[in-house]
Amino acid sequence: MTGRLADISARIRGVRQLGTVIAAMRSIAAARAQQSRLLMAGVDAHAGVVAQAIAAALHLLADGASPPPRPAGRAGLVLFCAEQGFAGGYTSRLLDEAARVAGDAAVFLVGSRGAALAGQRRLAVAWRTPMASHADGVPAVASRVAAALFDRLPRDRLARLDMMFAAWSPGHGLELCRRSLLPLDRSAFAEIRNGVAPLITLPAPVLLARLAEEYVHAELCRAAMHAFAAENEARVQTLAAARSNIAAMLERLQARERQVRQDTITAEVVELGAATEGLRAGRTGKPRRSLDPPRHDGSVAPLIQFLK
After folding, report:
1. 127 near 147, Cβ under 8 Å?
2. Using an 8 Å Cβ cutoff, are 91 and 124 in contact?
3. Within a domain: 139
4. Long-range CB contact pairs, 255-258, < 8 A, 24+
5. Are 70 and 161 in contact (CB under 8 A)?
């Protein structure tokens, strides 16, 4: 029983150490999520400014000019997944939705954890890159994805590009978002107020082409920042649930430890009492008195008449 008590105590120490690690990981994830929320406003503002510039550039085109015909080809899908684990079903939901809508699209996958799970699901990935581990690294991720897209667009004859990522909002939790990236939809910029027409030094088509490149980078940066925040928010929730499970497990182990310790003490007291009784019997030379009532045979039957 002493061995059982030692095993339970060792397990309690291990569970406490695991709880400390989980608490530290949860704190790191919460800090990263908060940092990404602080940077979100700037990223959204940058994308909005580029969209406004594109709306102004579209009005500079010749009146009645029709947009160029869309090239024929396959579609591309930029999928933002998790970089690390302990995020619950965050990556699985994204991969399930991507498998449902991707079809034969070329998948550009962001996130090491997502790449590993995509390999297990045998999801074809045309290109992959790690996700940022800090909010400050999100623009670099967007630049890598944009460079890969511009390189693969003519080579793979991609006619359309979409993005899929997860966004987190208080009260609603995780929400999967799918947005069109290329080609630019003129109707999406029609309602943007332009104000005074800008003065330009470039031909309007050239300016629009360069703004389109900047718009792609801005939208990728915004999607990556939302995905980074959602990953860490999902991790905070997952680790909070794990912390609750560890607290419940620790409570059960401590209750078991108290029960085993009580049983051990009781057994030791009984053994000590029996040993003391044996020593007393050995000193007096008398046999140990039994607590059971004496047994008699039929020879005591005549004594009953004296009791009448």
Report:
1. no
2. no
3. yes
4. 256/8, 257/5, 257/8, 257/9, 257/12
5. no
CB-CB contact of 149 with 107 (8 Å):
no
Domain total for the chain? 1
Sheet strands (E) in the chain: 74-80, 106-110, 127-129, 158-169, 173-182
- DSSP per-residue codes, 84-138: SS--TTHHHHHHHHHHHH-TTPEEEEE-HHHHHHHHHTT---SEEEPPPSSGGGH
> Which tokens belong to 306?
């004296």
Residue with the bigger pLDDT between 308 and 264: it is: 264
Question: Quick check: is 3 in a domain?
Answer: no
CATH number at residue 217: 3.40.1380.10
- CA-wise closest residue to 77 among 54, 94, 92: 94
Each residue of 58-94: pLDDT tens digit?
877 755 455 555 556 788 999 999 998 888 889 999 9
Q: DSSP code of 291?
A: S
Bridging pattern class, strands 173-182 and 158-169 = antiparallel
Beta-ladder partners of 179: 163
The pair of three-digit structure tokens given for residue 210, joined into one six-digit string: 């360069």
Coil, strand or helix: which one is 159?
Answer: strand
Is residue 297, in this structure, part of any structural domain at all? Answer: no
- 166-187 pLDDT, tens per residue? 998 887 788 999 998 888 877 7
Rg of the chain on CA atoms, in Å:
37
Centroid of chain to Cα 97: 17
Residue 114 lies in a domain: yes
